[in-house]
């Protein structure tokens, strides 16, 4: 009996010791997890801060680059006019529309800081002379400023670009700027993840503050951030010198500073206006953001540890009451169950960790989508662009496979040409629509024969109509004035769109009619023409007829979905017709066909012989004028450079390629007269873009600096054939053709 009591006593002591051991182990695990959590926060503070700084940089760069692009449109308008008055209706309408669209105040700046608004209000801009000097030297600027006008003072954020001299109301100006409400930029750059406890600064290349989310008059003046931090004893002299070097070298990074009150200082360059972004956040603020996500993980882990402790306690209690053999079997069974349960709990914890990480990532993404219209446009166009591109890529692979089969290669090349023409048609539609919406469509009027115009349309569509076995009838009535003056190119685009739609949406064997009639009019200067394009094709519903002239609109049916198109053709057609002073209307019934009516006034040509002589002169000049010419070309894309070189070689011309604006400037300045006949300038290039390179060439001491022709190449659809005062001729159709050089050597 005594022995049995001794054994029981020993079992109780053993159980107690085991329970104490489990408690001790649990406490050790909890302490370990807390230390690991603290280590995670310490190690990830910098990376979290770096991600925030990068996101702010991208948001600011996107917004400010948009500001500069808007100002460039104004620059083109000013340089086109050179001398203008703010009182004329045309100028007032342009500036008012621009200010409404940009939601800002447009101002014109002089070199001394004096300015005038688009509304005619004269003002003084309180800003450092260093920034005025930057503008004079050709740099874009952005700065918090104070405007002083009419005994009033107003704070705002000024962005400005340099410009060639222009005159407004008799005074000379050299820059264009726009002033935005300070709060607008503050709201966009607000760091929600840090509860507004972050300090944000933009510094110029001297370290002076040009923007901050902090209030205070001192930030509006030439105020050095590093000097301020040294004065507040937030950084040492050595640290200030180190950051000055990093800022000068345009570096990015995050540093942990301050011994008594530690804080993170993140920095990165802003390329759009040569500034440095600096973000300062207390370490405790960053740690708290990360700690919020770690608390959930730690709490879950503690609960799991407690659960494990209870399982072990119950397990040891059961072991103590079983025989040795039973204890061993039960232990193994419980151990397996515990292992499975632990794995499940760990899986749950991992899922929560992943969820917490995703939440943290989303919290760092503070930039908003500032270009929703572009996204909508891409979604509308992605399918139509991808289809011919996939065909080109696929057939290119087939050419590589069948390279030795000439017949196959020719067949594949024809198919690539068809797909390329379709893709080019899509791109041209987009560019045409962009130019129309931007008000940059240029009309060129000349004398032409309306009968020859009709015959040319017949020639263009003959093969398409023949392939579909359709009937094409042309009817001309009462044509009293054959020779008229108008934009033949855009007229051809209008009726090509209408006839192309008639062919596409009319079944094989169908009938298409083109009716031209000169209507009676009292004018002795203009002739009124009525054009009808009709067919007996599939027609359209009443609902679709009301939206046919809207952009990106196409009829939805099993038949129309198989017909390729952008949905822009009719919108372009209507805009061109109305821009030329005409009207367009449509009558249609589903399954019965459609009829488009265009009414247009065309100026009567004074003399037929004038037009014929001009045509003959043009024909005489159509020969290959490129033979023997020497071109200096700026093109940073290797493939485009190779294509350009080979095309010019085919025409008998020589070509020297430079990769950026700096190289082409150096090559020109080192050349002798006669080395180059013309410069082909890519607009968008690294180091120095086409605009900057052209300005530098025109200002150089080379004897041909003011006279050598410069042709720009770009895909910008808003500047089609615009002539700059600097002597730049812009050919911006999106695709560069040798014919453009042959017809336009300036």
Description:
- The protein has 746 residues and is α+β, with helices and mostly antiparallel strands.
- Among the domains are: 185-286, Beta-Lactamase, CATH 3.30.450.20; 372-438, Helix Hairpins (Orthogonal Bundle); 446-618, Heat Shock Protein 90, CATH 3.30.565.10; 621-743, Rossmann fold, CATH 3.40.50.2300.
- Helices cover 50% and strands 21% of the residues.
- Strands 13, 14, 15, 16, 17, 18 and 19 form a seven-stranded mixed beta sheet that branches. A six-stranded antiparallel β-barrel has the order 2-3-4-5-6-7, surrounded by four helices.
- Strand 20, helix 16 and strand 21 (654-658) form a beta-alpha-beta unit.
- The N and C termini lie far apart (122 Å).
Secondary structure layout:
Blueprint (H helix, E strand, L loop, with lengths): L1 H80 L1 E2 L4 H14 L2 E5 L4 E4 L4 E5 L2 H8 L4 E9 L2 E17 L2 E10 L1 H7 L9 E6 L5 E4 L12 H7 L5 H12 L4 E5 L5 E8 L4 E8 H38 L3 H41 L7 H30 L4 H33 L7 E4 H18 L3 E7 L5 E4 L1 H17 L6 E9 L6 E10 L6 H4 L23 H11 L3 E7 L3 E12 L3 H13 L9 E5 L3 H13 L3 E5 L2 H9 L8 E5 L7 H10 L10 E4 L14 E4 L6 H6 L3
Helix pairs in contact: 1-7, 5-6, 7-8, 9-10, 10-14, 11-12, 12-14, 17-18
Rg for CA atoms = 37 Å
Instruction: Quickly give the CATH architecture of the domain at 446-618.
Output: 2-Layer Sandwich
- In terms of quaternary structure, what is this? single chain
Q: How would you sum up the global shape?
A: extended
Structural class by SSE content: alpha+beta
- How far the N terminus sits from the C terminus, by CA atoms, comes to 122 Å
- In total, how many beta strands? 24
| Tally of alpha and pi helices | 19
What average pLDDT do the residues reach?
76
Q: Under CATH, the topology of the domain at 446-618 is which?
A: Heat Shock Protein 90
């Amino acid at each position: 009996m005594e022995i049995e009591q001794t054994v029981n006593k020993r079992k109780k002591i053993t159980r107690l010791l085991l329970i104490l051991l489990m408690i001790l182990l649990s406490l050790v695990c909890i302490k370990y997890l807390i230390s690991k959590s603290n280590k995670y926060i310490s190690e990830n503070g910098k990376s979290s801060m770096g991600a925030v700084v990068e996101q702010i940089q991208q948001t600011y760069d996107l917004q400010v680059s948009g500001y500069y692009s808007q100002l460039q449109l104004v620059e083109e308008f000013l340089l086109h006019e050179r001398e203008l008055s703010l009182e004329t209706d045309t100028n007032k309408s342009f500036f008012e529309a621009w200010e409404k669209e940009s939601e800002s105040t447009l101002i014109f700046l002089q070199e001394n800081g004096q300015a005038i608004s688009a509304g005619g209000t004269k003002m003084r801009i309180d800003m450092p002379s260093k920034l005025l000097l930057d503008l004079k030297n050709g740099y874009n600027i952005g700065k918090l400023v104070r405007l002083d006008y009419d005994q009033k003072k107003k704070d705002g954020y000024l962005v400005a670009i340099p410009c060639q001299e222009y005159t407004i109301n008799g005074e000379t100006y050299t820059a264009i700027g726009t002033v935005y409400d300070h709060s607008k930029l503050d709201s966009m750059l607000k760091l929600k993840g840090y509860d507004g406890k972050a300090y944000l600064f933009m510094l110029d290349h001297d370290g002076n503050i040009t923007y901050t989310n902090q209030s205070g008059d001192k930030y509006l003046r030439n105020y050095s951030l590093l000097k301020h931090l040294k004065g507040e004893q937030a950084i040492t002299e050595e640290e200030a010198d180190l950051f000055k070097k990093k800022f000068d070298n345009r570096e990015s990074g995050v540093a942990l500073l301050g011994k008594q009150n530690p804080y993170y200082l993140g920095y990165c360059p802003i390329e759009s206006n040569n500034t440095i972004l600096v973000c300062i956040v207390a370490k405790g603020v960053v740690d708290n953001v990360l700690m919020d996500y770690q608390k959930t993980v730690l709490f879950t882990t503690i609960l799991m540890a407690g659960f494990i402790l209870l399982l072990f306690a119950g397990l040891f209690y059961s072991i103590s009451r079983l025989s040795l053999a039973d204890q061993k079997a039960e232990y193994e069974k419980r151990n397996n169950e515990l292992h499975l349960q632990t794995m499940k709990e760990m899986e749950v914890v991992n899922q929560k960790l992943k969820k917490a990480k995703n939440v943290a990532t989303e919290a760092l993404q503070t930039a908003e989508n500032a270009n929703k219209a572009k996204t909508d446009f891409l979604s509308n166009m992605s399918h139509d662009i991808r289809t011919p591109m996939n065909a080109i890529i696929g057939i290119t692979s087939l050419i590589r496979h069948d390279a030795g089969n000439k017949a196959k290669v020719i067949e594949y090349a024809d198919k690539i040409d068809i797909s390329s023409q379709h893709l080019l048609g899509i791109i041209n539609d987009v560019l045409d629509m962009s130019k129309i919406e931007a008000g940059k469509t240029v009309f060129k009027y000349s004398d032409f024969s309306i009968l020859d115009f009709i015959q040319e349309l017949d020639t263009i569509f003959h093969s398409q109509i023949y392939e579909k076995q359709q009937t094409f009838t042309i009817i001309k009535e009462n044509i009293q004035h054959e020779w008229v003056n108008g934009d033949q190119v855009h007229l051809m685009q209008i009726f090509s769109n209408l006839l192309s739609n008639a062919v596409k949406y009319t079944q094989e064997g169908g009938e298409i009619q083109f009716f031209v009639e000169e209507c009676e009019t009292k004018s002795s200067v203009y002739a009124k023409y009525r054009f009808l394009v009709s067919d007996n094709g599939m027609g359209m519903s009443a609902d679709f007829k009301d939206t046919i002239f809207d952009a990106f609109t196409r009829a939805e049916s099993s038949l129309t979905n198989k017909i390729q198109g952008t949905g822009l053709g009719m919108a372009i057609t209507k805009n061109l017709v109305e821009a030329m002073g005409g009207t367009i209307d449509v009558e249609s019934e589903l399954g019965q066909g459609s009829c488009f009516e265009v009414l247009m006034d065309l100026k009567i040509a004074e003399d037929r012989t004038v037009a014929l002589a001009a045509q003959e002169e043009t024909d005489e000049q159509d020969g290959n004028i490129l033979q023997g010419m020497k071109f200096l070309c700026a093109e940073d894309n290797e493939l485009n450079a190779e294509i350009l070189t080979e095309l010019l070689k085919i025409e008998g011309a020589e070509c020297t390629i430079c990769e950026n604006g700096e190289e082409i400037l150096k090559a020109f300045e080192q050349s002798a007269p006669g080395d180059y006949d013309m410069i082909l300038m890519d607009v968008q290039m690294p180091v120095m873009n086409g605009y900057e390179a052209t300005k530098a060439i025109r200002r150089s001491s080379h004897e041909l600096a003011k006279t050598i022709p410069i042709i720009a190449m770009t895909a910008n659809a808003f500047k089609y054939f615009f002539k700059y005062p600097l002597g730049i001729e812009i050919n911006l159709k999106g695709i560069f053709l040798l014919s453009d050089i042959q017809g336009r050597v300036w």
